């Protein structure tokens, strides 16, 4: 019991309630542990794995994991912590993202011991009558007690009725799945607690335990990890990119990543040199999602590029027939940036190099000999001028 609780409690933000959890664990019952994620983007990132790793801890203790893909609730999008309404996703986007989530989660969880569920199965069948019955179990005052909803309402920022329904639909998932424990980020506390209430309203006496996890900061060390904030490390990132992103984080953030993403003894980490500790963290994370061979290769590439200031061996080529071209146009045409505005910004910040030499904003490229174009720390391309 003590060992199980220690595994479950590590890195958690809050457990409601620990006494109820102890009682359920002591019963010897195989608990149903629920985590729901809406497929609002194509990739899972390390921020998601904070909670998925906790799912794995429950799985290793012999409990039944239910990984719920919110293919129905994704049509609304979780409003938790949002300052504005989300864009409406198409059914095709949701379907595509849902498939990638189902594939990526098994980089952590045991495929044979994991139940994958889709909430469209029961929410699509709820119907108007069922939805009205569910909506009657909460009040506008209860919803407006949420800080994020309250703030948007006071600022006269758009707040849709659909967003009010989202927490209720998530709560109904716990009824449909008969969840014993539900996991979520700290920003999910309202939704998770509502799940307990709704379970009780639908006749489930032994309601779910709520386990909240901290939100992992992105590589900027400020905002939570999110693709929309461009500070995330995706599970599908190339090994070299994943390694490099981890090595770029601050020493302070590194210790938090160790706590939330690994089982390493933090006392050992604190006695290591920060650079050594960060490299060990990058190796562990890359090996976990890409294998040892790719992790070692990523480490060698990082050392070659950053420690020895060399160019990586395996870089792409871009061939062009123009005799000369503005540097900003070349960056866009070669696919190294997405727009001329981004190109100008990066050039002005000194983030573009030609054969290791910084290039200025008025630079006109002449294709006399092949050269290596570098954008930022990790993007390289060999530019070759072809004769017309």
From TrEMBL:
One of its GO terms (cellular component) is cytosol. Residues 325-384 form the RNA-binding S4 domain. It is found in: Cytoplasm. A motif ('KMSKS' region) lies at residues 224-228. SMART domains: S4. It catalyses: tRNA(Tyr) + L-tyrosine + ATP = L-tyrosyl-tRNA(Tyr) + AMP + diphosphate + H(+). GO terms for molecular function: ATP binding; RNA binding; tyrosine-tRNA ligase activity. It is an enzyme of class 6 (ligase). Keywords: Aminoacyl-tRNA synthetase, ATP-binding, Cytoplasm, Ligase, Nucleotide-binding, Protein biosynthesis, RNA-binding. GO terms for biological process: tyrosyl-tRNA aminoacylation. ATP binds at residue 227. Its main location: cytoplasm. Its EC number is 6.1.1.1. A motif ('HIGH' region) lies at residues 39-48. CDD domains: S4, TyrRS_core. HAMAP family: Tyr_tRNA_synth_type2. Catalyzes the attachment of tyrosine to tRNA(Tyr) in a two-step reaction: tyrosine is first activated by ATP to form Tyr-AMP and then transferred to the acceptor end of tRNA(Tyr). Homodimer. Belongs to the class-I aminoacyl-tRNA synthetase family. TyrS type 2 subfamily. NCBIfam families: tyrS (TIGR00234). This is Tyrosine--tRNA ligase. The gene is tyrS.
